[in-house]
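Summary for the steering committee. The consortium agreed at its last meeting that each partner would contribute one worked example illustrating the joint modelling workflow. Our contribution is presented below. We chose a case with several input lines so that the handling of multiple components could be demonstrated. No manual editing was applied between input and output; the record is shown as generated.
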Amino acid sequence: MASPAAPASPQAYADAVAAAVRAAAAYYADGATPLGDDEYDALVRAIEAYEREHPDEVLPESPTGKVAGGAAVGDVPHSVPMLSLDNVFSAEELESWAAGLERRLGRPVAAWCVEPKLDGLAIAARYRAGRLTRVLTRGDGLAGEDITAAADAVLGLPDRLAEPVDVELRGEVLLTHEQFEQANAVRTAHGATPFAHPRSGAAGTLRAKDRAYRVELTFFAYDALGLPGLDHAELLVRLAALGAHTAAGTAAAPRRCATLAEAQQRIDEIAGLRAALPFGIDGVVVKADAVADQEAAGSGSRAPRWAVARKLQAQHQVTRLLGVEWNVGRTGIIAPRAVLEPVVIDGVTVTYATLHNPADIERRGLMIGDQVFVYRAGDVIPRVEAPLVDQRTGAEQPIAFPEVCPRCGDAIDTSEQRWRCVRGRACQAVASVIYAAGRDQLDIEGLGGTRAVQLVEAGLVADLADLFTLTREQLLTLERMGDTSADNLLAAIETARSRPLNRVFCALGIRGTGRTMSRRIAAHFGSMAAIRAADAEALAGVDGIGAEKAAVIVTELVDVAALLDRLAAQGVGAAVTEPTAPAATSADGGSAATDGTAAGPLAGQSVVVTGSMTGALAELSRNAMNELIERAGGKASSSVSKRTTLLVAGEKAGSKRAKAEELGVAVMTPEEFAALVADQLG
Ligand code: IVH
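What follows is the complete predicted structure of the assembly.
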């Protein structure tokens, strides 16, 4: 990660300091914050950069060099200051930090200990003769708040240790993912707003007084006073033996590493495990393991010199809720989905997040235009956690709930938390059959809305595969279905049986794949079997499919596996063409490449069609024209740009023709074009 630029002026620096102080104060007060972790870290680093360049302008309230950004308060003094950690953001920064430490020691570090950086709040728990006497927050590092009353609800922080020792455990209190879910369930049941974030939940819970409900937390010990002479890894073993909970039992267990390279490997492992851990981590801590190294290195006023946090990208980010979409699922469930101002979380751009159900939206008190906390971890579907209520401007709008099923327009059953179309699965069936029969998909004439409803309601059709087994007798049982209509419909279905792959694929109604994308996917893979065999990585090789969409398509393909089997048995979608992408693994074991070079008279051309088509092209819809262009090796596009190489201009061609002429793009009549692609047209 590049270092953020220093503020450009004293005023910008003062503004940055004020913003950081506000954020730190809010964060340590109740865990709510107007800034995401990454933004806060970047702000502090920019402030540090300015202060390095202008050491005599450092403001006294600057958060740099202070534990908790100088925000926290408390009145019970710590016996030994509770320090923070310095941060590094890359392997290179870690290396130079370690080199600095070894220079200071004048010798190599004996060994490292690598452990998860637990995303909670630091506490100190004092034991006298093995009995818990007092629990303190970190506060400003010198004095903390007494939170002994909250200890009861903290798992892993025993009332009594296994031996009657005098010791002060130090470690992190957090809400595991499960505890976070439980906490929000019980809070919303009590009419309280849900916690935005597990850490704000932990902070709020430790301080809460007189709550009508109980929220359970978890403690992880990572340090102690009063057990001298032990190397760090040994100390952790001793703490566990005394009955304190440590990270030892987790997949991210602390590990002693002989070299920095080994430590780096363990950091990568822990980072890779992050999504699967049952609790949040915001980094990995690297510590000099030997007590001799720790003592020789000592500590600064803010942080020890023998330990450092390798920060990971935050999994929570703040962004704006732009709107809510209502999607009807396969079973007729009407699910709200948040449309977000795009935000990068842990390297992935997130634009949508789940909102569960209408009751959940109400409980969270969300409004359109709100700044919201969004959470994403690994492959988990991003979700909107809560609005930042104190950031409201007054311009926020209530979220409109649908009054009728957004898919079929029938009524909504709102008796359960999850709303559902009264047609249930049939809502999906009717809509998906109408869609599949549409002109740009299977193009089945005579199968419009009324017929689709009849077929579904008569139990003859539940999905599009059923269309291909319909018999004349079955059709004749339908109202207003005479001999001729039945024969015509059967003939239209028969024609549809041999539609090309792209249309059959499009007919499936896979999310994120309309006509254009279906054409690209079909051309790329060449057969339904190859599409089905593709993993997310292979799908992401198709022009226009990013990682997020590829994952969705893979999931959807699994969902329709049975349907695809039945279609295949009917010979639907059986066409095979030469794929534009090499098979996933070639003979030399290489992976799929996508040079996309296609042969044909339009190879390398970017073609736009405008005006009405005549002659041999008269009957072709725009979609069919686009298919034709792609069969001929070209790329179809809907607007004229510098990249356009050919415009097919029919009658009444308007502004696109003018633009093409202005840009010097070649223009053809439909007849000239038909001659050019005669082979593909046949
Ligand atoms: S060691 C002198 N180890 O991260 C020792 N801290 O950003 C200083 N934290 O204040 C702390 N996991 O609240 C240490 N395994 C771990 C940790 C850890 C989380 C927290 C702790 C610290 C903060 C610094």
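The CA atoms of residues 465 and 564 lie 8 Å apart. The chain has six domains: 10-70, 76-311, 316-398, 424-496, 501-593, 606-681.
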